[in-house]
Amino acid sequence: MRFTRPRDLAVAAVVAALLAHLLLIAGYNSLPRLPAFIGLTFLVLGGVEAWFGFSLRSRIQRKPGTVPVEALVAARAVALSKASSLAGAIMAGVWGAVLLYVAPRFADLEAAAGDTLAAVVGLVSSAVLVGGALWLEHCCRTPEDPDESDKITRLRR
User: TM spans, by residue (predicted)?
Assistant: First the structure.
């Protein structure tokens, strides 16, 4: 299994931003106002995933006083982190498109003022989700076996 590449997340964000921008051009006037803190859910999820990553990391590294992690738990955590990082990247693209659309219209449209705050909160929250998910995925890596790393070092010499 490969780890999530930032390039893949960037492509997803750009495609989502382009699609969202086209939809905003076509129908922004018919949309209701966005709640200011609509994106906070992703902020909470990102924080939980980061905390889960710290918890799993010490267990995977078998630090004293921790219970070892079952392989299925680690596999599920990696699946969660991959899905969350992709969802966060897509939503960051969408919120970025909303921000780029409403920020220039801040003074002209009353709805754009409120939507700008919602877009900033959503963009920051989506970025936190991506960061938390990537940290969780990083924490699920198995530690190198000391014997294996010695063999590799000796082979390189």
Answer: 9-28, 34-54, 86-104, 116-136
SS3 state at 106: coil
The residue to which tokens 């004293």 are assigned = 64
155 or 87: which leads in pLDDT: 87
DSSP structure class, residue 31: S
φ, ψ of residue 35 to 5 degrees: the values are -60, 140
Rounded CA separation 112/101 (Å):
9
Residue 143 has pLDDT above 80, yes or no: no
Token output for 151: 């063999």
The token pair that represents 139 in the structure block: 């924490």
* Helix 71-102 / helix 40-60 crossing angle, nearest 10 deg: 150
Q: What is the CA 68 to chain-centroid distance, rounded?
A: 26
**Can you give the pTM of this predicted structure?**
0.84
Cα–Cα distance for residue pair 77/88, rounded to 1 Å? 16
Give the DSSP letter of residue 29.
G
Domain boundaries, the chain: 35-145
Residues 53 and 139: beta-carbon distance below 8 Å: yes
DSSP letter (8 states) at residue 135: H
- Give the DSSP letter string of 85-97: HHHHHHHHHHHHH
